[in-house]
Amino acid sequence: VSDRRFKTDIRPLSNMLENVLSLKPYRYQYTDNNPNQKESLGFVAQEVQEIFPELVQKQEGEREDGVLSLNYSGFSVLAIQAIQEQQETIEQQKTELDEQAEKIDKLEQRLGRLEALLNK
Q1: How many helices (H) and strands (E) does the chain have?
Q2: Which partner from 13, 23, 94, 105 sits 20 to 30 angstroms from 61, CA to CA?
């Protein structure tokens, strides 16, 4: 359920890019129930737990007592926030580049005027 009426203490995410960049995706094979040695892609729950504990669940029960699993759908939220932070950085850099280009244009104009005066 994503309805606001069922949520409390709603806060925006921030500074996710650095944490997302610290995640280490892997290629691996499961040790059980993998007769064809099929490879999978994903993360190691113990590593994710250090960075995003809210995405890690501990399984309880006879067979899987203490086994960690990941809420992979939660990674999409992190990815969106990281993309937004990257876009903000890109926009800031674009503004800085535009300002630098404007300064360069003004300096080139001044240099052109100086050269014209010297060539007289």
Answers
A1: 3, 4
A2: 23
